[in-house]
Amino acid sequence: MRISWISVFSISSNNFKNSFYNVFHVVNMARRVVRAVSSLLDLYEIDSSYTRFDQKYEMFARSSWDQSLPLNKSVDNILETIDNKIREGASGFTIKDYALMQGAWAITTASEFETGNMGLLSWKPLSFKRNPSSVQLFQMWKSKNNDSNLQKLHGTPDEMSFILKRAAKTYGANLVGICELDHKWVYSHHWVRPDNVHKKIVFRNVAEPDETDEEFIIPSDVKHAVVMAIEMDIELLHNSPTPLCEATTGLGYSKMVFLSASLAEFIRGLGYTAIPCANDTALSIPLAVSSGLGQLGRSGLLITPEFGPAVRICKVLTNMPLQKDKPVEFGVTQFCQNCRRCAESCPTEAISFGERTKEATTISNNAGVLKWPINPEKCLASWRKNGFSCSNCIAVCPFNKINGYKSLATEDGDPEQWWT
Length: 420
What we know:
With 420 residues, the protein is α+β, with helices and mostly antiparallel strands. It has helices at 16-30, 59-62, 75-88, 95-104, 133-144, 148-151, 157-171, 234-237, 243-269, 284-290, 332-338, 341-345, 376-386, 392-395, 415-418, and strands at 35-36, 175-180, 189-192, 197-204, 210-211, 215-219, 224-231, 274-277, 295-296, 302-303, 311-318, 328-329. The strands form four sheets. Strands 2-7-11-8 form a four-stranded antiparallel β-sheet, sandwiched between helices. The longest helix is centred in the middle third of the chain and has 27 residues, at 243-269.
């Protein structure tokens, strides 16, 4: 059953004080009171004992090796559910809805967006041998020209950051921020699928990023992360959980691959190292928070001032001389403390109703950071049961489009109306 869109006055708590706080704070959000803070530590409480997270224990990686996971229905059962839904012509489950979902994921077939260093997300410059000739000619000129002053763009960090953000916006980024690449947010190991190979990620004094049989090697001079957010379609999110809604998820991932690959090639064209990343290599949300794109919410998602949690995140790691952005604070933690709409909307109770903690709920949480830990095992089990993803927690968040045409809408999504 689809979620109902909850209005601002549908406060989860019966306590009048909490209700008043929620209403007051939503009004405050509408004004977008955003202030910069000096560092990530103003927003994150991190234990000194915190260690880098191993991607092997990330939920999708675990699904490839952990036989203990209760992933519910078999593939045959899921296929039977899909067949029944399509035959019934169920709203949001028609063949055109599934086809829209399929097309949305198309660009991800040209990469491995969970592993990295494959396809469009290669750590090496892409080949333009087939086309277009204009790029081939530019690369031929670079290979024949030995003048370092012409080979590499030079400028102040402010100038370089402006140019970089202009390019990112041109390629399709809705939000762009820059932060120092804090090694604590880089995975300790990659989990390389589909072969299930476990490789350490290390930093070394080398000229170019590389992958060996044992390691992924990041050059030590790669000191910045350029983090980009892509807006999701609010109208499609209204139809969660359906294949129609998953079209905006798939499109977000396709845009992540295109955007990070394009910006990486731009950086390489300027003469610098670039490592394009989707969900791979490093934790996206801490880097996004450090880059000033938003704050961490109860749902475990990035909450942005512009789009709430309705974004997908990608990043490019680089050695370009850049100016760091400052993290921002706009009341997310205080608001989430009282608002539990994402938790109430979750069909598997994967989102915490309790207080923040530094403890891990499962081995798929990175312990040592004060936050609301989700239970990704329950979340993924729901996806596997349905045969598609769920975006309820994104759809019901009051931070979505506060000043936009769909802010705080009260209607359900209508798949058939969407197609008209």
